[in-house]
Each structure stands twice: as C-alpha cells, then as structure tokens.
Amino acid sequence: MNIFLDGLIVPEAEAVVSVYDHGFLYGDGIYETMRSYDGVVFMLSRHIKRLQRSAHLIRLEAPEKERLTDAVYATIEANNLSDAYIRITLSRGKGPIGLDPGLCGKHTLVVIAEPFREYPALCYERGVHLIFAKTRRNLAEAVDPKIKSLNFLNNILAKMEAKERGAYEAVMLNAAGFLTEGTVCNIFFVRHGILYTPSVAAGILDGITRELVIGLARKNGIKVEEGKFYPEDLLGASEVFFTNTTAEVMPVARVEDREFEVGEITRVLRSLYRAEVRRYVSNNSR
C-alpha cells in the first residue's frame, strides 16, 4: 500500500515515523476514520471538522480543510481504491522525551487508505453479541470525550474483555454507572417504539453516524430520546443496535445473556442509512 506521510505519497515500507514522535511516545495526537463508496468519502467535511475540533481541544494546530481533503483523495487514488477504509492520524510530532508539547516542532500527518473489507452478511441478518465491560469510560473531566485521541488504552482494555468473553463488542459505563458507548461505536435501543441513545452528557463521542441516524429517525417519524440510561434500561429493550462509520447500522442479537431479535426499527434505519449513502455519493461524485 501507499501512504501519505507529511506531504508525500510513499510506499508502506518507507512510511516511517520517528521513535521520538510524541504520538508514539505518549499517544499525543488525534485521528479520524472514514469510509469511501465508489470513490467518494462519505461525510468527509464533517470528519475533517471533527478532527480540527479535536486538534483545537489539545492545542494542536491542524492543517486546513483543503489540504486534508487533498491528502485523503491523493491516498485513495495512489492505491487505486474505490471502496476504502481511510484513517487520518495527526500527532504532536517529533521532539525530545518529555511531556511538554512545546518540545515538538512540526506535527506529523499520516493518511492510510486500505480496501474496505465488508462485514459478514450474517452480522446484519442475525446481529452480534455485546457485553457490559467492567472497564469504566474515562471521566469526561479527565479526558474530554469530544477528543478523538490516539490514547485509546481505555477502549482497548474494554475490547479485551469482550474478546475474552467471546463477544463482538463491549459497552462501557461511566463512573456513575450510566451507559456511554462501545469501544468503537455508539449504542441505540428501542423500547415501546421509541429510540433511545446515551446523550453527549453521559460522556460519549458525538459520532457522525450517530447524529445522522438520529436525524433520519426523526425525519421519518421515529421518536428519539437522548439521555442517561442504566444497563437495565437497555436489557429491557425490544431492539438494540450500534452505529459507526464502517459498520453503519449493526444489529445486536445478544447483550450479556439477554437475546434480541433484529427488529423493524433497526431494519428501517439501516435501509434509510444506505439510501442516504447512495444519495450523498450521487451528489458528490468526483
């Protein structure tokens, strides 16, 4: 594969970042992941805006929108891709050992684009298995969840729990015991025809796919409530699904020992989401 590294497209073997890069040493940096369909990166402007917000929150100067857009498409084209997984990584850059951000000179910008690997069809037909992680979500007062940070150990520990228990994904709770999000996704559940999802106040990243699904639901007459919910609220639901950029709308068949059907609202929202992708790609083809 070919990689975008600080303004150049280079072969993967030459895409080398210094061992003194503070992204490597301390997780001092941010990232975004995206998906392209037929050569069009879905919601690219929104992802870039969120990357720039993350950069602002950690006092890191981010490249302008046009440069990031060009870097993303240059990487896709350099790999002759149409349907792709894309990741932008922006670190504090190279500097002497020490926590002071002022030790670093220039940031490091990396863009990776790989062929998109479809999720197994059975996942969408039957749903996946989730657990509640014992690992609690970082306190919002400690690490602002609006920062999509390279320091992902909190989520990795929860993902390890899921893997050890044979589950696909783990749902994390905050320090007060409320639902927050999965390790890489936002959580939704349906009770009595109403769609519920943890609010930003619960300590979640405001997912771009999450926001789109909420908008599609409301536009199509599905009532949505954002708030603070306990695990018992989810376990009492009739449907559960999660959202993220790559999986889109993923049904859940089981949470802990509670089983769920892939319900009508989940199916409708997945269909609406796919239609929105087609509309976006048609309107933004290059």
Automatic annotation (TrEMBL):
Q: What is its EC number?
A: 2.6.1.42
Q: Which cofactor does it need?
A: pyridoxal 5'-phosphate
Please spell out the taxonomic lineage of the organism that makes this protein: Bacteria, Pseudomonadati, Nitrospirota, Nitrospiria, Nitrospirales
Q: Give the family, as the similarity comment puts it.
A: Belongs to the class-IV pyridoxal-phosphate-dependent aminotransferase family.
Q: Which GO terms describe its biological process?
A: amino acid biosynthetic process; carboxylic acid biosynthetic process
Give the source species.
Answer: Candidatus Sulfobium mesophilum
GO MF annotations, alphabetized: L-isoleucine-2-oxoglutarate transaminase activity; L-leucine-2-oxoglutarate transaminase activity; L-valine-2-oxoglutarate transaminase activity
Q: Name one GO cellular component term.
A: cytosol
User: What is the name listed in the Swiss-Prot or TrEMBL entry for this protein?
Assistant: branched-chain-amino-acid transaminase
- Keyword list, A-Z: Aminotransferase, Pyridoxal phosphate, Transferase
UniProt xrefs under InterPro entries? Aminotrans_IV, Aminotrans_IV_CS, Aminotransferase-like, BCAT-like_C, BCAT-like_N, Class-IV_PLP-Dep_Aminotrnsfr
Q: Which reaction does it catalyse?
A: L-valine + 2-oxoglutarate = 3-methyl-2-oxobutanoate + L-glutamate; L-leucine + 2-oxoglutarate = 4-methyl-2-oxopentanoate + L-glutamate; L-isoleucine + 2-oxoglutarate = (S)-3-methyl-2-oxopentanoate + L-glutamate
Q: What pathway is this protein a component of?
A: Amino-acid biosynthesis; L-valine biosynthesis; L-valine from pyruvate: step 4/4; Amino-acid biosynthesis; L-leucine biosynthesis; L-leucine from 3-methyl-2-oxobutanoate: step 4/4; Amino-acid biosynthesis; L-isoleucine biosynthesis; L-isoleucine from 2-oxobutanoate: step 4/4
Q: Does the keyword Transferase apply?
A: yes
